[in-house]
Amino acid sequence: MDPNTLPFDADTMLLGLREWVECESPTFDAAAVNRMMDIASRALILAGARIERIAGRMGLGDCVRATFPHPTPDVPGILVMGHLDTVHPIGTPLPFRREGNRAWGPGILDMKGGNYLSLEAIRQLHRAGLRTLLPITVLFTSDEEIGSPSTRDLIEAEASRHKYVLVPEPARPDGGVVTGRYAIARFNLEATGRPSHAGAALGAGRSAIKEMARKLIEIEDMTTDSCTFSVGVIHGGQWVNCVTTTCTGEALSMAKRQEDLERGVAAMLALRGSSNEVQFKVTRGVTRPVWEPDAKGMALYEVARQIAEALGYTINPQSSGGGSDGNFTGAMGIPTLDGLGVAGAGAHTLDEHIQIDSLAYRGKLMAGLLMALA
């Protein structure tokens, strides 16, 4: 099957994608995420899928599992896996807009655009009367942006029943795809001081905010070429005239090798308060294992490379920072290909945008892969 013969139209696809983008769905707003799951569910049903809605937990949104009719439904098949939560709070000043070959909006690149083109690829094959060699399952999850704490077990259980996993996270800056990802660990931080009246008895207090500030610098100064550290969230204080008793935060560490990450984890967990009058505690949060390229994954990449070449472009393989749910499936040894989504830039920023034409040519790559895998 030549995917070039399929009538993908980027402008038409953008019209459909707009509804997904304008349904803002930040991770911590379960109701908003569920509204997005409603939209995706309807689109999947219209495409011929059987839908299963999986209730969220930990106060987070639902997930959707969609299976498409196939003569051998019980054969291990292809899992197309993506998340529909975003990092942009509702009301973020990033409205959907188009200028030339670019379109902006919250989550349009990471990763609603990739999810939408994957669904369009399935629709195009169905309209053309083409049947894939393997059954297809689509899994849309709700909490990837916070490390998938409520869905990792679901992801791993579903992936274990499949032969391949395709992840339409954004394409790499050079248009390449992802055949491995770095290990990532998250940490919860808590500083505890001693309260006092900031105006009448400042010297009697010990500020938890001040302690957190010290530790922020100490943590980020631990960064090396092999393991990075960053503090991304801090909460502390309620009254400006009170010396703060408690300050909390969240930190992230990333390493190319699992052993480097484990050394970083040990260093984080060893952190203590700078004096006996304050306390500082680190607890380990969600961890994504390193996913290293292997022979089965590279064989999957080679299939994709040949399809892309026939379509007239090149996709280079690469390991990448910035975790995804592909970390889990790749680390399980299931052939996984990530970064199959749209081209663009500015993920997680107010400049998040896609290259509109990539909806079509990356959609053709996805369609070609779905047809080729056996």
Can you give a write-up of this model?
The structure is a single chain. With 374 residues, this protein is of the alpha/beta class. The chain has 2 domains: 263 residues, Zn peptidases (Aminopeptidase, 3-Layer(aba) Sandwich); 106 residues, Alpha-Beta Plaits (2-Layer Sandwich), CATH 3.30.70. Helices cover 32% and strands 24% of the residues. The protein has 9 helices and 16 strands. A 6-stranded mixed β-sheet has the order 1-2-6-3-7-14, sandwiched between helices. Strand 4 and strand 5 form a beta hairpin. The longest helix is centred in the N-terminal third of the chain and has 20 residues. The mean pLDDT is 97.
Brief account:
By secondary structure, this protein is an alpha/beta fold. It has 2 domains: 3-182 and 290-372, 3-Layer(aba) Sandwich (Aminopeptidase), CATH 3.40.630; 183-288, Alpha-Beta Plaits (2-Layer Sandwich). The protein has helices at residues 10-22, 30-46, 108-127, 152-159, 208-220, 258-269, 295-311, 326-331, 358-372; strands at 50-54, 63-67, 77-83, 97-99, 102-104, 136-141, 162-166, 177-181, 183-192, 227-236, 246-255, 279-288, 317-320, 336-337, 344-345, 353-355.
